[in-house]
Amino acid sequence: MGELRLMKGNEAIGEAAIRAGVDGYFGYPITPQSEIIEYLMAEKPHERTGMVVLQAESEVASINMVYGAAATGKKAMTTSSSPGVSLMMEGLSYCAGAEIPCVVVNVVRGGPGLGTIQPSQADYFQATKGGGHGDYRLIVLAPASVQEMSDFVKLAFHLAFKYRNPVMILSDGVIGQMMEKVELFEPIPRWTEEEITRLSPWATTGKTKNRERNIITSLDLDPARHEKHNIKLQEKYAKIVENEVLCEKINCDDAEYLIVAYGCSARIAQKTLDLARAKGIKLGLLRAITLWPFPTKPIQELLGHIKGILTCELSAGQMVEDVRLAVGNNIPVKHYGRMGGMLFTPDEILHVLEQKIIGG
Amino acid sequence: MRSEDIIRPENLVYKKTPLMTDNILSYCPGCGHGTAHRIIMETIDEMGLQENTIGVCPVGCSVLAYDFMNIDMQQAAHGRAPALATGIKRTWPHRLVFTYQGDGDLAAIGTNETIHACNRGENFTIIFINNGIYGMTGGQMAPTTLVGMKTSTSPYGRDVHRMGFPLKITELVAQLPGTWFVTRQAVHTPATVRKAKKAIRTAFEAQRDNKGGTTFIEIVSNCNSGWKMRPVESNKWMEENMFPFYPLGDIKVEGKLVK
Questions:
Q1: Are residues B75 and A64 in contact, defined by beta-carbon separation less than 8 angstroms?
Q2: CB contact under 8 A, B51 and A207
Q3: How far apart are CA A94 and CA A117, in angstroms?
């Protein structure tokens, strides 16, 4: 068993970064995730592993520092919250275009604009549908516990390097701020320079006599070549859809009704299952872990016995669109959300389920 | 005597550095970029640092610099080169890292990244080509466009009341304690090319020896297409109009202001 600690979600991200063998963290403070950079600075990772932690002058600079370091084959990451992540969208589009493996954590707060510092899930569209310009996808992981805040950092780097693609951990203000027991994974040593050149032969580590120069760019002015590059990206995304979908099914085997949720909403909805079962309603929960690729197939596999679906999100209804795409018009799919930092309760969800789905 | 007999290795006094590729330069004939590229690559070759160098070229005319420089390179978003270079240098402190940026890139959209990288004293070299105009996008006004200078977005000449003043960003970064060597050079005559190359060597040596600060080289250059002049005419115009406002020479040496 790994080391057990009581930690904030944000602190777990920081500790996991050190243990995952990250070479460079470049970030900028913003509520509700500033504890990540505070934790990292306090932990002196340069002494523990040699990891670089730098407070950048802006979110724009942080993501581009990540680009620079990650393009050399180093493990690089940044973290921010909604308005800061908006500023990173240019950089993320470049990272996707240039196929840079890197990790970005978004501890979501309420928007649009400056919004509020309270939790929200309204950045789903931005994370899963683009945000930056061009045809690209981020792999998006949605933790629902402090344990997953830690575990997903390791998983995110694994996926980032496996596919040479940016990975976003889409968390929220609840998971970032709450404290839970977490079992920390064993530290992974940082890659040596020899390992980097072997594992990432594409990286700009300095042109040796044995190879052609390496160029990291997202530019190709030749339209035919650039289309080819885009097709290659799309083929990569198709492979990710095929191989990397993650979700958790709770009480789904005999369920007649289904809640689809992720992150803190899934934590709240889990309690609704007990309340529903006590009333004789066969309710299941499908918790999306990867938001992109979305668990389309796992939802479709349940359709034989499901009469209606309620999605619970802290937004005006974003993920519900992906559920509707998966389900089509066969059964009712309704959304229930709160905004502006307001949360729903398990009773509230059950009430809406009874009104909108069972009664509706 | 046939020309083949004359062009023999023992007779050669100058040859192309292997650190420049054989690709045909995409810059306009008469532009200073080609010369600037060459002296940077010659210096890296002479210092034996090809295997240890990572360059960053962002958006603008130099966006394709990696086609011509035979080293590992990254292409950055507009203005973000100093941030990329920070990420590279912080995680590979023993590599030689440089950015190659134009005035729109470095002094407009990238002012923030430029100032803060210099203020942190990041140990890399910024090479700043200042031709007072946006070359690639078709000759629009830059932060460095001279007062009264006509561009496609200042067609009656830059008017300071409506368009503000030309930005002397090199003098500005020289004020920051993080910069170690700040100089302004040119590459339009053999004498200026030699001086500019010496400045590049000074900067790269300071970086290699970890003297403790950012090294910053402005190269005032022409843009004969953007200025709508013949190459020779543009060089003369540069001497008469750019150099009085952007005087050549060292501004900061070994961390101390010299003028």
A1: no
A2: yes
A3: 28
What is the distance in angstroms between the Cα of A57 and the nearest Cα belonging to chain B? Answer: 7
Four-CA torsion A300, A306, A308, A309, nearest 10 degrees: -50
Residue whose token pair is 């610099």: B65
Whether residue B70 lies within 8 A of chain A, CB to CB, comes out as: yes
Q: Which amino acid is at A178?
A: M
Tell me which residues of chain A have a C-beta less than 8 Å from any C-beta of chain B: 23-24, 26, 52, 54, 56-58, 60-62, 64-72, 74, 76, 90-91, 94, 98, 204-209, 213-219
DSSP for B104-161 reads HIIIIITHHHHHHHHHHT-SSEEEEEE-SEETTTTSEE-TTPPTT--BTTBTT---HH
Query: Which amino acid belongs to residue B258?
Result: V
pLDDT at B1: 75
C-alpha to C-alpha distance for A165 and A160, rounded to whole angstroms: 5
Quick: pLDDT tens for B65-75. Answer: 999 999 999 99
The helix (H) or strand (E) run that includes residue B195 is helix B190-208
pTM beyond 0.95: the answer is yes
Name the residue with tokens 């523990």: A48
**Residue B154 identity (one-letter amino acid):** S
Mean pLDDT, residues B113-142: 96
Q: Could you say which of B52, B69, B77 has the minimum Cβ distance to residue A206?
A: B52
Let me know: does A129 contact A294? Beta carbons within 8 Å: no
Cα–Cα distance measured from residue A84 to residue A37, given in angstroms and rounded to the nearest whole number: 14
A70 is written with which tokens?
A: 């990650």
Q: How far apart are CA B211 and CA A197, in angstroms?
A: 28
Contacts of B116 (CB under 8 A, 6+ apart): A56, A57, A61, B82
pLDDT means over runs of 10, chain A (360 residues) = 95 98 98 98 97 98 98 98 98 98 98 96 97 97 98 98 98 97 98 97 96 96 97 98 98 98 98 97 98 98 97 98 95 97 98 93
- Contact flag A23-B91 (C-beta cutoff 8 Å): yes
What is the DSSP secondary-structure string of B84-115? Answer: HHHHHHHH-TTSEEEEEEEHHIIIIITHHHHH
Q: CA–CA separation, A355 vs A1, rounded Å?
A: 45
Work out the mean pLDDT of chain A and round it to a whole number.
97
Q: Is the ipTM of this complex over 0.85?
A: yes
List the 93-152 stretch of B: residues with Cβ below 8 A of A. 95, 112-113, 116
Burial class (CB in 10 A: 0-12, 13-18, 19+), A280: exposed
pLDDT in tens, A85-132: 999 999 999 999 999 999 999 999 999 999 999 999 999 999 999 899
> How far is CA A201 from its chain centroid?
27
